[in-house]
């Protein structure tokens, strides 16, 4: 129904998720009133944040009435015992039901899990009460991982989730261009993966910051993409929000072809700005 974008857009935003780091707890507290109760709040697993900081973020999200979705970065986990300890603490915090499992940026795994799949297959997650696992998707590829590897990884993870009796979903790497996202989702569906997909996009933020994260994670920002998204590569002082991106996604989203789609906002230090932006859309 591409001729009724205004009725489709709120649907995509009905059950959005937000991503924060351990350092954003005060921002979450400030923004709480602008975020619908029960919203999923993902907690990034940064290498430079100690587990206690991530745990305090998970606790804060639960205490404020949201659903914490802590991330586990497989390659950063140094042992099965360390992983079990983190999961036990999450369970204690009421934050273990939903997690997001990602490979992890270290070029060499720091412990027994070389990828998300090995953690999924370890049996540990269920032991600590995990019921729903998010995995990542890369509509524009990944700078260090080839396309065929990415495709087999996501197919194997979807199969492993089924085998392990875990519910799941996909969250895509943030991007600035809707076209590759929808093409990728169609490809995913043709490969038989029917997991719900949350399309990752940055919340409103300064252009300089967006570009620096994009560079850091190998996300494309060509001049054409920038224009479509609504920022200029030469005006680094400006800010840019996902207005056009979300509008374009809503216009082109066809549930018959794309299955279950939602939105995931990478807030990059601005959870309040993102919450306000979403609230202003409805
Ligand atoms: N999308 C996101 O929000 C985030 C993505 N990442 C990064 O994305 C990458 C892939 O994660 P997943 O999609 O979960 O992959 P995965 O764990 O499912 O692995 C897929 C394949 O790529 C290989 N691989 C994984 N990480 C790698 C790395 N850092 N360098 C070289 N090869 C690697 C694995 O051995 C496996 O063959 C990782 O580098 C991860 O840190 C990290 C944090 C958040
Ligand atoms: N390949 C890959 N690796 C990642 O680690 C990664 C992705 N992709 N995609 C996006 C998510 C979100 N990520 C991040 C990483 C760092 C901050 C961060 O450092 N935030 C600052 C505040 C904002 C700022 O000052 O820029 C912080 O201090 O927490 C946030 C999200 C990491 N993520």
TrEMBL record:
Q: What are the entry keywords?
A: FAD, Flavoprotein, Oxidoreductase
Q: Which residues form the signal peptide?
A: none
Domain of life of the native organism: Bacteria
InterPro entries per record? FAD-linked_oxidoreductase-like, Mehydrof_redctse-like
Cofactors needed by this protein, per the record, are: FAD
Pathway as given in its UniProt record = One-carbon metabolism; tetrahydrofolate interconversion
GO CC, alphabetical:
cytosol
Name a biological process GO annotation.
methionine biosynthetic process
A GO MF term: methylenetetrahydrofolate reductase (NADH) activity
- Name the catalysed reactions: (6S)-5-methyl-5,6,7,8-tetrahydrofolate + NAD(+) = (6R)-5,10-methylene-5,6,7,8-tetrahydrofolate + NADH + H(+)
Bilayer-crossing residues are none
In which family does this protein belong, per the annotation? Belongs to the methylenetetrahydrofolate reductase family.
By what name is this protein known? Methylenetetrahydrofolate reductase
**UniProt source species:** Streptomyces phaeofaciens
Q: What is the lineage of its organism?
A: Bacteria, Bacillati, Actinomycetota, Actinomycetes, Kitasatosporales
């Amino acid at each position: 129904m591409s001729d009724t974008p205004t009725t489709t857009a709120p649907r995509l935003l009905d059950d959005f998720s937000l991503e924060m780091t351990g350092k954003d707890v005060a921002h979450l507290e400030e923004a709480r009133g602008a975020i619908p109760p029960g919203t999923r709040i993902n907690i990034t697993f940064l290498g430079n944040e100690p587990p206690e900081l991530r745990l305090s973020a998970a606790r804060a999200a639960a205490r404020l009435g949201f659903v914490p979705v802590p991330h586990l970065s497989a390659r950063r986990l140094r042992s099965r015992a360390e992983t079990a300890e983190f999961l036990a603490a999450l369970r204690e915090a009421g934050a273990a039901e939903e997690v997001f499992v990602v490979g992890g940026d270290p070029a060499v795994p720091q412990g027994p899990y070389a990828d998300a799949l090995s953690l999924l297959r370890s049996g540990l997650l269920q032991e600590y009460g995990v019921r729903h696992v998010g995995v990542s998707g890369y509509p524009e590829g990944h700078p260090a991982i080839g396309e065929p590897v990415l495709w087999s990884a996501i197919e194997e993870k979807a199969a492993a989730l089924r085998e392990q009796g875990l519910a799941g979903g996909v969250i895509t790497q943030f991007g600035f261009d809707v076209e590759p996202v929808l093409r990728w989702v169609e490809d995913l569906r043709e490969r038989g993966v029917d997991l719900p997909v949350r399309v990752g996009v940055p919340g409103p933020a300064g252009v300089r910051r967006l570009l620096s994260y994009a560079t850091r994670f190998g996300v494309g920002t060509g001049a054409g993409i920038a224009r479509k998204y609504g920022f200029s590569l030469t005006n680094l002082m400006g800010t840019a929000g996902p207005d056009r991106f979300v509008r374009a996604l809503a216009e082109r989203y066809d549930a018959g072809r794309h299955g279950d789609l939602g939105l995931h906002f990478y807030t990059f230090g601005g959870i309040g700005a993102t919450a306000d932006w979403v609230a202003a859309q409805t």
